[in-house]
């Protein structure tokens, strides 16, 4: 039987951070198990490729039909392979608001307030602007300013500033409010995924198993002892001498817990599974940023598009990138954006905007020959709660994902305010000079029609969290040290542990969680 001191399941952002840190000193034998491949090819490293359509790098899940989206199924891309979603995302480096972490502490997660997590953000970060009270300059995760910015993205910033939105040069600094350019997880023009940050250095004590699908976690007498997985058509078992860290993400972490007999007892019994640990919160508390996209066609070819001329420009940019690692293919597409308080009573921004110098339809899956731009409006702290459940007893099958988007009326109210504010900015100079044509016009005077239009187009902006929440209460799936209740030696290191979603993109917070999990595990092992 294979053996290791620590087994990490899932090489996404949290899993890479946990495995990388725990193997640094060479004292422990760490095995990292990943269902996908190595994700080190040119298409992954070139930022502008955005390989979301590649089944080798994307699980490409779907939700169940969503009443809040007019009965549509939502699209749920999730990274597959080394780096997980950090290998296919827009690379935006954002932490959320300090108040988010103060909220975690108030919800029964001591040690997770802003003063507690900031040092971990700084320790993970190598920011090109250098280190200061807010940023680190010596960590493994490279954070850069964008090398290339489309003039339209600057026009969006100028339009917002002309309406009184403050310019913000650092969304991860003292103030989150305002409009500006996003920093990105890139290094010298290349995508810098969590795998490149934490796994690039070869270590004799770190073994990485790719194309290996974890099927269940093995424990006996309330103590973890191993992991069952499938590779090359064979079922195998690896013994974990000290710990197992589950980092499969907000959908597949609860799925694996349930397949292992840890979860809502009634649901497990309905699936024909023996209940090992009855934990109702496994798979519950699903939260995600619901998002509306407006898109505009613009005369000419100044913006990106899939016309013949646009494709030729794309090819030229790709060639320039391969030679110099510069130019248009360094774009994250979501180049600029804003954090806004659309409710004057709010203490923190409640809506985030992302501006893209390209028309995006159906998550970029629909071919659009027109040139133009898009803008997203996302609800930062949704009140709707969904869940993840088993759809099959095969770990390789998609789980049943039900985010319950827009089922809480407060989310619709916030999204309406956000869209109105977004259109106010999009209609201002100098952006209006491009003579845009709205591809999906809205009638703000018709409330019922406005709401129907939102339900016809809204969907995720790819930030699912919360399905194995941490807390001090007995119902929480794991404690504030990320130890799963009821199974000694089992930890979780991904976005599923968040008790509440943060007000911003979730990749950087997930990496921070992975860093902290590694520290918790190391401390527990040192104490035994």
Molecular structure report:
This protein is α/β, with parallel strands linked by helices. The chain folds into 2 domains: 1-144 and 184-287 and 384-400 and 463-528, FAD/NAD(P)-binding domain; 147-181 and 290-379 and 407-457, Cholesterol Oxidase, domain 2 (2-Layer Sandwich). The chain is 26% helix and 21% strand. It contains 12 helices and 24 strands. The protein has helices at 13-22, 42-45, 98-106, 114-124, 151-162, 194-198, 249-259, 265-270, 308-324, 409-426, 447-457, 507-527; strands at 2-9, 30-33, 61-62, 75-76, 125-127, 141-143, 178-181, 186-187, 190-191, 206-209, 212-220, 223-231, 234-246, 262-263, 277-278, 290-297, 336-340, 351-356, 372-379, 387-389, 400-402, 437-438, 459-460, 490-492. The strands form 7 sheets. Strands 1, 2, 10, 11, 12, 13 and 24 form a 7-stranded mixed sheet that branches. Strands 7, 16, 17, 18, 19, 22 and 23 form a 7-stranded antiparallel sheet that branches. α1 (13-22) packs parallel to α12 (507-527) and α4 packs across α12 (507-527). The longest helix has 21 residues, at 507-527. The protein is globular and about 70 Å long.
